[in-house]
Write a structure and sequence with these properties.
By secondary structure, the protein is mainly α. It folds into two domains: 235 residues, TorD-like (Orthogonal Bundle), CATH 1.10.3480.10; 46 residues, no CATH class. Helix 8 runs antiparallel to helix 9 and helix 9 packs antiparallel against helix 10. The protein is globular. It starts with a helix and ends in an 18-residue tail after the last helix. InterPro entries: DMSO/NO3_reduct_chaperone, TorD-like_sf, TorD/DmsD_chaperones. It comes from Aromatoleum toluolicum. Keywords: Chaperone. This is Cytoplasmic chaperone TorD family protein.
């Protein structure tokens, strides 16, 4: 009987995190808007109540935010403005919060963790491994595989989901939430359903994340690495860093001209402009 309850709990956790994973993917298809508007809040509310997550208020805020978005094109434009189109201030690739740079050490650590569980990048996925949705989907997989292992007597996953949440999500969620909240407080900001979804995720992480018990020497090394990454993320790129980058580029015979342009001005210097995704073409199956 105890195993049956544990299997059900693990399965529900997998379903909960999978719902969130899909909500943080780029909403390219109209069907995604329909699902986010009509089904997601009910699913999260039911699963959250069953799992003991205190997220009813955040679910209510999500209902209000998604109801304020009239159609799929508006949803896609809002997502793009928040997470995709420069100059964006919210990083959907969360390694930036941990490393202060794109594709840094935390991304390598994530990929090593995925490989330990036999997970490889799909051919149809073209983002980095630290995308919010990728991490959520991996947590869902760990819980669902744990439920299956308990039901069949098979070995559990090589990584426990609660340890993964503690090692990664619990560290980048605070600055991710801060940036989402800063956007919401900006005059003229539009509805943002991903802010209450991030609060729901944070509630689940606070409930589920458990630090892995490691040898003292490993804990000290991990704390040192985490501190160094945090300090790098906080201080940003220095003049010494830029000189090091320029030297490495010159050694490889590559141009360094772009380094003289501040990052926030490079799109303008290259003739790029901020825009929004186009609407459906006339005659397409989405029009």
């Amino acid at each position: 009987m105890m195993d049956a309850r544990n299997i059900e709990s693990l399965t529900e956790r997998g379903e909960f995190y999978l719902c969130l994973a899909r909500a943080f993917l780029t909403p390219r298809e109209p069907e995604v808007f329909t699902a986010l508007r009509d089904a997601l809040a009910d699913d999260l509310e039911e699963l959250g109540a069953s799992l003991g997550y205190a997220c009813a208020d955040a679910v209510a805020h999500y209902r209000a935010a998604i109801a304020a978005i009239p159609d799929h094109v508006t949803l896609l434009q809002r997502y793009s403005t928040l997470f995709l189109v420069p100059p964006r201030t919210i990083q959907i690739n969360t390694g930036s919060y941990l490393d202060g740079a794109i594709n840094g050490g935390s991304v390598s650590a994530l990929e090593d963790t995925y490989r330990r569980c036999g997970v490889e990048r799909g051919d149809d996925f073209h983002d980095l491994s630290d995308h919010v949705a990728v991490q959520l989907e991996f947590v869902a997989l760990l819980y669902l595989n744990s439920a299956e292992a308990l039901a069949t007597g098979a070995p559990p996953p090589a990584v426990r989901p609660e340890h993964f949440l503690d090692q990664f999500a619990a560290r980048w969620l605070p600055p991710f939430l801060r940036d989402l909240e800063n956007d919401a407080s900006t005059p003229g900001a539009g509805p943002n359903p991903w802010l209450p979804l991030a609060h729901i995720f944070a509630t689940a992480v606070a409930h589920d994340a458990v630090a892995e018990e490691l040898p003292a020497s490993v804990q000290r090394a991990q704390r040192a690495i985490g501190k160094a990454r945090h300090e790098r993320a906080e201080r940003g790129i220095t003049a010494d860093d830029m000189e090091f980058i320029a030297r490495k580029l010159r050694e490889k015979g590559l141009s360094t001209e772009h380094l003289a342009i501040p990052p926030q001005l490079r799109d303008e210097a290259r003739g790029y402009s901020r825009g929004t995704p186009p609407g459906p073409r006339k005659g397409s199956r989405y029009a």
